[in-house]
Amino acid sequence: MNIINPYRFAAGGATQYSRDFNGTDDYVSIPDFAHDVGNLSCMCWVKTLDTNFASFFSHWDVSSQRGWIISTDTNDNLLCGISGNGTTSNRIFYTQNDAIADGTWRHVGFTFATSSLLKLYIDGTEITDLGNLGLATVGSIHNSTSDLAIGARFGSGTAAAFGDASIADCRIYDETLTEANMTTIATGGTYSDTNLVGRWITGDDEGSGSVTVVDQSTNSNDGTSVGSLSVADYPPI
Fold first, then answer.
1. Can you say whether residue 123 is alpha, beta or left, with left for phi > 0 and alpha for psi between -120 and 50 degrees?
2. pTM for the full model?
3. Are 167 and 45 in contact (CB under 8 A)?
4. Residue 92 burial by CB count (10 A; 0-12/13-18/19+): exposed, middle or buried?
C-alpha cells in the first residue's frame, strides 16, 4: 500500500505555500476526468473573508445543474451541493450554520455514500448527517462534463462564482471516508493514497500566474492556473 508523503505543510517539510485567488477572475481549471461519483470524498483547505457566494472546489455544470461543489453561501456558511441528474428531485444543497469566512485556515469538505449519506466536515469534524433526507433518488452524483475548478465553478464553459481566498491541498477520493479519516487529514496525519484520484496545491510546485498546477496523485490530472498566485501561507498544522 502506498502512503501519501506526510503532510507537506508540516514544519521541516517542503516549502509551505498555498494559492491565492482574488475573487474576481482567478481560478484553476482541471480538465474533466472520470471519478467514482457513487462513493466520493472531496475536501480542501480555505482561508477567506469572502461573504459572497464563493466556490472553492467544484465539478459543477451550471447549465445542466449537475455535479458537486464546495462553497460558501451569502452568509459565509459552508455550502455543499450534489446533483444526480440535474432535476430538483435529484439535487440537494446543504448549508451548515458555521461561518467559515473568518480569515483563518479551515479544512472543509464532504463525503457521499451511494443513495444515502451526504456528510459535511469542518476541520475534520462531521457537522451534519443528512441521512436519507431527500437523497433516496440520488443513486450517484452525476459526473459533470465541465472542467473541475479551484477558486470558482464553471457554467457553459465559463468560470464564475470566484472566491476571494487562499486555497490549499484540494483532494478527491473514490472512497467514502470516515470521520476518523477526515480528522487524520485535517490534523496533518498520513492517509493511504489507494483511492486518491486527485490532489492539487500541496507546496511551491507551480509558481504564479498562468502555469501548470500539478496533480500530486498518480493520475496526472494537472490543472492550469489563470491568475492565481503561489504565496507563502499555509494551514497551521
1. left
2. 0.86
3. yes
4. middle
The domains of the chain, with CATH numbers, are 18-231 (2.60.120.200)
Element (H, E) at 68: strand 66-72
Tens-place pLDDT, residues 153-203: 987 778 888 999 999 999 999 999 999 999 999 999 999 999 999 999 987
- The C-alpha R_g of the chain, in whole angstroms, comes to 16
Q: How do residues 95-134 score in pLDDT, each as one tens digit?
A: 666 678 889 999 999 888 875 577 889 999 988 655 544 4
Residue 165, CA distances (Å) to 33, 46, 152 in order: 25, 7, 10
Distance CA 183, CA 177 (A): 10
Instruction: Please say whether the dihedral angle defined by the alpha carbons of residues 152, 15, 206 and 8, taken in this order, is positive or negative.
Output: negative
How far is the C-alpha of 53 from the C-alpha of 226, rounded, in Å?
20
Instruction: Give the cell for residue 225.
Output: 492556473
- C-alpha count within 13 angstroms, C-beta hemisphere, residue 47: 17
